[in-house]
């Protein structure tokens, strides 16, 4: 059952649960002016580095959304939430504000932002807009393993493009949950290929036995051209999905 709840239906986060938040990015000037003050000093500085204004607005809108949601979990005003960063740039809430060890991950594509939230464990989420101009065939040949390519191109031709985006979001979600980001090549590990459910299949030439669980996230029908996947390094038992306005 693919149930999405309104933000008014927010319930406390259980230890074995992941919350997924979906937001349609409003990048109108009035909205951007409202959200910008919520950002931390580091986020504001980063927003100024975007070459194109449309990318700056998307950054402000998605990070403003993130601040508003995280405030539900850590009892801190939206505009006071601050972050520390790993060497590879992955953020976490500063320790003094995070007594419940809230972990999160943000993704945005085109007009959509998604945020995954859990306790204690690492989490990664990816959302991708299925751009018709995307050279998905060429990308798959460059970044997918031989086995993934074989399974993908054995599908009926009309199913291959959607399957590509499902595979890609599975890979991105895994790269994000590890905290390695782009330093981990998508070709260094395998994920399942549709119609199989999302699953981390393991590393190529690597015996890392870390547990990773995946789940495809299916967006409401109005966002049918988007694909999303969740990954976490624990055996989560429940995923609850909210729409944030």
TrEMBL record:
<dbReference type="InterPro" id="IPR050559">
    <property type="entry name" value="P-Pant_transferase_sf"/>
</dbReference>
<dbReference type="Pfam" id="PF22624">
    <property type="entry name" value="AASDHPPT_N"/>
</dbReference>
<dbReference type="Pfam" id="PF01648">
    <property type="entry name" value="ACPS"/>
</dbReference>
<dbReference type="GO" id="GO:0019878">
    <property type="term" value="P:lysine biosynthetic process via aminoadipic acid"/>
</dbReference>
<feature type="domain" description="4'-phosphopantetheinyl transferase N-terminal">
    <location>
        <begin position="31"/>
        <end position="117"/>
    </location>
</feature>
<dbReference type="InterPro" id="IPR008278">
    <property type="entry name" value="4-PPantetheinyl_Trfase_dom"/>
</dbReference>
<dbReference type="GO" id="GO:0008897">
    <property type="term" value="F:holo-[acyl-carrier-protein] synthase activity"/>
</dbReference>
<dbReference type="GO" id="GO:0000287">
    <property type="term" value="F:magnesium ion binding"/>
</dbReference>
<dbReference type="InterPro" id="IPR037143">
    <property type="entry name" value="4-PPantetheinyl_Trfase_dom_sf"/>
</dbReference>
<dbReference type="InterPro" id="IPR055066">
    <property type="entry name" value="AASDHPPT_N"/>
</dbReference>
<feature type="domain" description="4'-phosphopantetheinyl transferase">
    <location>
        <begin position="122"/>
        <end position="202"/>
    </location>
</feature>
<dbReference type="GO" id="GO:0005829">
    <property type="term" value="C:cytosol"/>
</dbReference>
<protein>
    <submittedName>
        <fullName>Uncharacterized protein</fullName>
    </submittedName>
</protein>
<keyword id="KW-0808">Transferase</keyword>
């Amino acid at each position: 059952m693919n149930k999405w709840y309104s933000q008014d239906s927010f319930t406390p986060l259980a230890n074995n649960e992941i919350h997924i938040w979906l937001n349609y990015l409003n990048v109108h000037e009035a909205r951007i002016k409202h959200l910008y003050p919520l950002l931390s000093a580091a986020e504001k500085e980063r927003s100024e580095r975007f070459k194109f204004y449309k990318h700056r607005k998307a950054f402000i809108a998605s990070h403003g959304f993130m601040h508003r949601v995280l405030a539900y979990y850590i009892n801190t005003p939206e505009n006071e939430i601050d972050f520390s960063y790993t060497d590879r740039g992955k953020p976490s809430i500063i320790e003094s504000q995070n007594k419940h060890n809230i972990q999160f991950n943000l993704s945005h594509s085109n007009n959509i932002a998604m945020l995954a939230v859990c306790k204690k464990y690492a989490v990664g989420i990816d959302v991708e807009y299925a751009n018709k101009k995307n050279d998905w065939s060429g990308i798959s040949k460059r970044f997918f393993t031989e086995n993934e390519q074989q399974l993908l191109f054995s599908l009926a031709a009309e199913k291959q493009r959607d399957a590509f985006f499902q595979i890609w979001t599975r890979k991105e979600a895994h790269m994000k949950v590890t905290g390695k980001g782009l330093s981990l090549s998508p070709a260094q590990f395998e994920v399942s290929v549709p119609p199989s459910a999302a699953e981390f299949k393991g590393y190529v030439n690597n015996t890392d036995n870390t547990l990773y669980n995946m789940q495809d996230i299916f967006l409401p029908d109005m966002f049918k051209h988007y694909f999303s996947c969740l990954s976490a390094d624990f055996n989560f038992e429940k995923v609850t999905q909210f729409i944030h306005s």
